[in-house]
Amino acid sequence: MWKMIVRRILILIPQLFVITIVTFLLGNAMPGDALSGMIDPTVTAEELAHQRELLGLNDPLPVRYLDWITSIIFEGDFGQSFTHRRPVLEVIGERASTTFWLSLMILILTYAIAIPLGVIAGRYKGMVIDKAILLYIFIALSMPTLVLGILNILFFSHNLGWFPSGGSASALVIASGTPLEVFLNRIHHMILPAMTGAILGVVGIVFMLRANIIDRTYSEYVKLAKSKGVPTGVIFRRHIFRNSIIPLTAGLGFAIVGTLTGVLFIEMIFFYPGMGMLFFNSISSQDFAVVNTLIMIFSALSAIGMLISDILLTIVDPRIRVQ
User: Fold this and answer.
1) pTM for the structure as a whole
2) I want to staple 216 with a disulfide (CB 3.0 to 4.6 A). Which of 112, 173, 177, 240 is the partner?
3) What H or E segment, with its residue span, contains residue 81?
4) Torsions phi, psi of 251, nearest 5?
5) pLDDT tens per residue, range 94-135
6) Cα end-to-end span (Å), the chain
7) How many CA atoms lie within 13 A of 296 on its CB side?
């Protein structure tokens, strides 16, 4: 197993290197530059040209890339945000924890909803409960995140008043509340966007788990266990469910990637001040240093998520460890 892990980590290094090249080229393919829209009307064209020269914006692309990547590798310097007038990592660091906890809650809720639904649908194939779950899955499959988010805001926030429609915490609670009150208030703000992401994120997991359970139910080793008089509940727990859950472990990395992608749009819908909202705001303000760094972070996390899937799969499936 350790050889596989080391090999995957070594493969990850050139992947990240390619990501930096693609990120840099995409950032430079955007119209304008870091100074676009940030210059006072009184600034002359000569002063603007001088600033571009100081920032190295007139250098050839290979030179600019080398300066950028060497600063990251040897100095840990990802550049300055022209919108916030601060180092990029400092700006992103303020939003990272917010996005992390929201993503974690979405992931937990996704599996908490998907596993019971997949088990019920697979175990009671063709029955009314299975058809009801499949109907829900097909509706969720065709429901855009934006539409579901707006419907949840209208119903649960405006009509019922159960949850706030946006933000990550109440300013009044942060200013005068106890640490426990602040924590509970943040959870309260997190529930509606997390449920929106989880409701749509269960589709693939439910389909996979249902198909795996149905396939294992008619396998030869299950038939053999039944012929020996093993109780149905024991057969399901030890043979059907245990073997059906293994592919879900391998899919955890894909679930992490999907959650990171989905949280970008969820934060915009609910005005949740995380990295997703920072990403879109930075694009609109042409703050390319922030945009490039965020693309690198999300791409690196996606690659690491795949690595986590491979590692978990080798832990739960002995056959891979033998190979």
Assistant:
1) 0.76
2) 240
3) strand 80-81
4) -85, 0
5) 888 888 888 888 888 888 888 899 888 888 888 889 889 889
6) 9
7) 23
Is the distance from CB of 20 to CB of 296 less than 8 angstroms?
Answer: yes
* pLDDT at 199 (0 to 100): 87
Q: What is the pLDDT of residues 129-187, one digit of tens each?
A: 988 988 988 888 888 888 888 888 888 888 888 888 877 778 777 778 788 888 888 88
Helices 275-284 and 288-316: crossing angle, nearest 10°? Answer: 150
- Residue 37 above 60 pLDDT? no
Q: Residue holding tokens 């509970």?
A: 184
Tokens of 97: 């924890």
- Report the candidate in 86, 114, 145, 83 with the shortest Cα–Cα distance to residue 272: 145
* Residues in Cβ contact with 221 at an 8 Å cutoff, skipping those fewer than 6 apart: 239
Amino acid at 40: D
Structure tokens belonging to residue 265: 């749009």
Burial of 281 (0-12, 13-18, 19+ CB in 10 A): middle
Label residue 29 exposed, middle or buried (CB < 10 Å: 0-12, 13-18, 19+): exposed
Mean pLDDT of all residues belonging to the chain: 78
